[in-house]
Specification:
Number of helices: 10
Low-confidence stretches: none
Strand content: 15-25%
Number of strands: 12
Shape: elongated
Mean pLDDT: 82
Largest sheet: 8 strands, mixed
Radius of gyration: 33 Å
Helix content: 40-55%
C-alpha cells in the first residue's frame, strides 16, 4: 500500500515517522514482517516508469572524461525488506538498525550487478558512489535477482540502500498470515493512529499484481491457443480423411494381394507402415516449420521455451495416432471381406 503523510516532514522526521509506522504495524497480531520501500516486485508504478537508470562510480575504476559509469536501478528500503518479499541474501549481510545516518553508508547489490561488475570476485567490501564521489557506499551484501518490472523483463542491475541513510520510501509491504481483506482495515487503523490524515491508497497483494502483469499476454496466448486447437482438429481431420480415402482406393490392389496368398496381417502391416511413413514425413516438415515460426510468440511465454520439446512431442504423437487410426480402420474392413468380393466390387 502507498502511504502519503498529511503534511511535509523534513528528512529526520520522515525517518522517525517511518520507524513509527514499522513498529506499529509490526505489532499487529498475525503480521509476520513489514517493510517500507521505494519500489517492490510488480509495482504498477514501477512497471509504468521502468528502472530509474542511475549511473554509479566504482572506487578504483577510472572513467573516461564525459563517460558514464555502470547504470543501475536504486531501491530504498527498511532493513526488513528482503525477508518480507522473500528475496534471499546469498552473500554478506542484510541492513541492520546500526546502519543509520551516523554509520558508514552501506549498500547491497543484486546477483546481476555483482556478476557484471565483479565477475571474478566478491563485491562485498567494495565501495561505490552515485553522486560523483561525494558519498561512498560500502557493499555489505549480495541478494538474489528479482524481476521487479514484470516477468517479461530480465532482472537488471539493482542497487539497494537503507532508508536510514537516504530518504523516506512510501510503499508499505506487509507479510501476514491473515487474509489480506481482513488485514487491510487493521493496518489502515494502525496507520491512522500515527497520523489521522495519512492517505493510504493502492492497496493490493503482490500475487494479484503478478497476475495482472500476465493479463495482456494471457489474452493473446489464449486466443492463439484456441486457434491452435481448431487448426489441430482440422489438420487431424484432414490427415485422417486423406489416408482413409487413400486406403479405400486400394481395395482392388489389396484384394489381388490376398487372392495371390498374402496373409491379412501382412497386408495390414504394409498399409499401416506406408501410411505412417507419409505421416512421419509430414510431421518432420511440420516440426521444422513450427520451430521457425514459434519464435514469433516467444514474448508471450514465461519459463518455457518456444521450442518446448514436450509440446512438440505431444503434437507429433497426436498426428501419428490419427494417421495410424486412419490407416487401420479402412484396411481392417478390406481384409475382413472375401478377396473375390473385393475384386468384383472394384
Amino acid at each position: 500500500m502507498r502511504l502519503s503523510p498529511s503534511f511535509t516532514y523534513d528528512i529526520d522526521k520522515m525517518r522517525i515517522l517511518s520507524h513509527r509506522v514499522l513498529t506499529r504495524v509490526g505489532s499487529l497480531a498475525a503480521i509476520q514482517s513489514v517493510a517500507l520501500a521505494s519500489n517492490f516486485p510488480f509495482n504498477p508504478d514501477g512497471i509504468a516508469t521502468g528502472p530509474d537508470k542511475t549511473d554509479i562510480e566504482i572506487e578504483g575504476r577510472t572513467l573516461a572524461k564525459g563517460s558514464l559509469g555502470p547504470v543501475v536501478n536504486i531501491t530504498v528500503m527498511s532493513p526488513a525488506y528482503f525477508p518480507t518479499i522473500r528475496q534471499p541474501i546469498i552473500e554478506g549481510r542484510d541492513f541492520t538498525a546500526h546502519d543509520d545516518a551516523k554509520a558508514q553508508p552501506v549498500a547491497i547489490v543484486n546477483r546481476a550487478l555483482a556478476g557484471h561488475q565483479w565477475p571474478s570476485g566478491s563485491p562485498v567490501g567494495k565501495r561505490l558512489s552515485f553522486n560523483r564521489g561525494k558519498t561512498w557506499f560500502k557493499v555489505v551484501g549480495v541478494v538474489g535477482d528479482v524481476r521487479e518490472f514484470g516477468l517479461d523483463r530480465p532482472p537488471g542491475d539493482e542497487l539497494y540502500l537503507t532508508m536510514d541513510q537516504t530518504s523516506f520510501p512510501s510503499d508499505l509491504i506487509v507479510r501476514t498470515a491473515l487474509d489480506p481483506r481482513v488485514a487491510s482495515p487493521l493496518i489502515r487503523a494502525a496507520l491512522h493512529e500515527i497520523d489521522p490524515q495519512m492517505a493510504v491508497d493502492q492497496v493490493a497483494t503482490v500475487k494479484l499484481l503478478q497476475q495482472e502483469t500476465f493479463t495482456p499476454p494471457r489474452v493473446i496466448a489464449s486466443l492463439l491457443g484456441l486457434f491452435a486447437i481448431l487448426a489441430t482438429l482440422i489438420s487431424a481431420g484432414g490427415i485422417g480423411a486423406a489416408l482413409a480415402l487413400s486406403v479405400s482406393q486400394r481395395r482392388n490392389e489389396l484384394g489381388i494381394r490376398m487372392a495371390l496368398g498374402a496373409q491379412p496381417n501382412s497386408v495390414l502391416r504394409m498399409v499401416v507402415r506406408q501410411g505412417l511413413g507419409l505421416a512421419l514425413v509430414g510431421v518432420a516438415l511440420g516440426i521444422v516449420g513450427a520451430s521457425a515460426l514459434a519464435r514469433l510468440i516467444s514474448s508471450l511465454l514465461y519459463a518455457i521455451s518456444p521450442t518446448d520439446v514436450l509440446t512438440f512431442t505431444g503434437a507429433s504423437l497426436l498426428f501419428l495416432a490419427v494417421a495410424l487410426i486412419a490407416c487401420l480402420i479402412p484396411a481392417r474392413q478390406i481384409i475382413l471381406i472375401d478377396p473375390v468380393i473385393a475384386l468384383r466390387q472394384e
